């Protein structure tokens, strides 16, 4: 990121500097105990005074905290997970206020979690900090703007300037980044001066089920073998296994391949069977779902393929220009076996009598139909995981500065309990 003008340290930080006779080398200073044991109580008291100053400054902008206790935060655990210290003003405000909505359109996010499917601080940070090197998010708005600290601007977190990313400005062709050049509290004061209403309420994103956030295990560093597989250019299952080791107990479902073949009326490609037996059903890169191959549920392979092909024929009858393909069991028809979280379908084109020669095709949800893909199933997966493939329905999903290894992931389906 470009370096904004660096602000001076917040005035509240002056409380942490020595002052008075003890700081001036007086007799009292000479008689005082020295060393870490003596410094720690003084530093703690100074930090408490500084925190109180930050909270008072925030209250001066937006008023007192909402009713009820704030969600507690284990700041040491949060900072260890982040690998960074956080600004003192943010921690002070978050400790007293918790997650709050400012001016009815800006949500100050703090480390908390809701029930599954709700807000999760770890997901919020992990996904949004991908936008640019060195940014760390702390707030978002109702118009999808995100407020970050630029951690590259200073080694002192209390001096990190606030930057704002605006998708609206990006769509208009402008620079999406606004550099406020000020730490959190002065930056909020600027936003209030520009029209942000100086009112607050408990964040509606938190809800009644919000509670403390527990940092998840940190993603392990990639091994040398994974790095080699990422860069090596291999296209077979061995290369995929080296890049992304399969789960120890892959779950395929409760039936067998004979039942699948009989239900669909065809044998399936041997490469797909080997892939499914290695990995089971699951989700690649939080995007592509490999339907449970031997399952009997409505979203598992057999039921999904039947529904999807019937649905495609109905769409083709109404919109033939956008749905030009045949659908299984029509000759050469598409047969889906995986889908994206956005509704795109990864299919075979069942051309000819040899399933091992069937080409792959993506049926995109939001774009015209494209040509078949080039390569084998594992080769296509590897090319996509490496950030080389960028197709409608199988997008690259990487910012230009990102390491593809950071997004290589697979979440396997679990066998039902009992």
UniProtKB/TrEMBL annotation:
Residues 69-194, 251-387 form the Knr4/Smi1-like domain. It comes from Streptomyces omiyaensis. Residues 1-39 have a biased composition (Low complexity). Residues 1-44 are annotated as: Disordered. This is SMI1/KNR4 family protein. Gene3D superfamilies: SMI1/KNR4-like.
């Amino acid at each position: 990121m470009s370096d904004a003008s660096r602000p001076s340290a917040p005035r509240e930080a002056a409380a942490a500097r020595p002052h008075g006779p003890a700081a001036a080398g007086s007799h009292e200073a000479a008689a005082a105990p020295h060393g870490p044991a003596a410094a720690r109580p003084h530093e703690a008291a100074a930090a408490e005074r500084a925190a109180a100053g930050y909270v008072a400054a925030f209250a001066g902008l937006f008023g007192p905290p909402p009713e009820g206790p704030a969600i507690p935060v284990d700041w040491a655990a949060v900072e260890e997970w982040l690998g960074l210290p956080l600004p003192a003003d943010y921690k002070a405000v978050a400790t007293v206020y918790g997650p709050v909505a400012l001016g009815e359109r800006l949500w100050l996010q703090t480390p908390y979690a809701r029930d599954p499917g709700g807000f999760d601080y770890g997901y919020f940070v992990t996904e949004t900090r991908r936008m640019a090197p060195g940014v760390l998010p702390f707030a978002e708005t109702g118009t999808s703007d995100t407020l970050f600290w630029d951690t590259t601007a200073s080694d002192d977190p209390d001096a990190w300037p606030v930057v704002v990313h605006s998708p609206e400005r990006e769509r208009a062709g402008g620079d999406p980044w606004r550099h406020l050049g000020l730490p959190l509290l002065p930056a909020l004061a600027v936003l209030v001066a520009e029209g942000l209403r100086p009112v607050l309420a408990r964040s509606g994103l938190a809800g009644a089920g919000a509670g403390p956030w527990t940092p998840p295990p940190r993603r392990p560093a990639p091994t040398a073998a994974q790095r080699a597989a990422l860069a090596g250019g291999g296209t077979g299952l061995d290369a995929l296994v080296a890049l992304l080791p399969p789960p120890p107990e892959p779950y395929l479902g409760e039936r067998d391949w004979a039942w699948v073949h009989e239900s669909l009326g065809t044998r399936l490609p041997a490469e797909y069977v080997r892939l499914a037996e290695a990995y089971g059903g699951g989700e690649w890169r939080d995007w592509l779902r490999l339907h449970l191959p031997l399952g009997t549920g409505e979203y598992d392979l057999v039921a999904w393929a039947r529904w999807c092909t019937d649905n495609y024929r109905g769409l083709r009858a109404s919109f033939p220009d956008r749905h030009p393909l045949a659908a299984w069991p029509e000759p050469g028809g598409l047969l889906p076996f995986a889908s994206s979280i956005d509704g795109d379908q990864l299919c075979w084109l069942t051309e000819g009598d040899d399933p091992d020669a069937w080409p792959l095709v993506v049926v995109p949800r939001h774009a015209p139909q494209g040509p078949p893909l080039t390569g084998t199933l594992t080769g296509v997966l590897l090319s996509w995981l490496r950030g080389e493939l960028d197709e409608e329905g199988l997008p690259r999903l990487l910012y230009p500065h990102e390491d593809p290894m950071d997004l290589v992931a697979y979440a396997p389906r679990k066998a039902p309990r009992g």
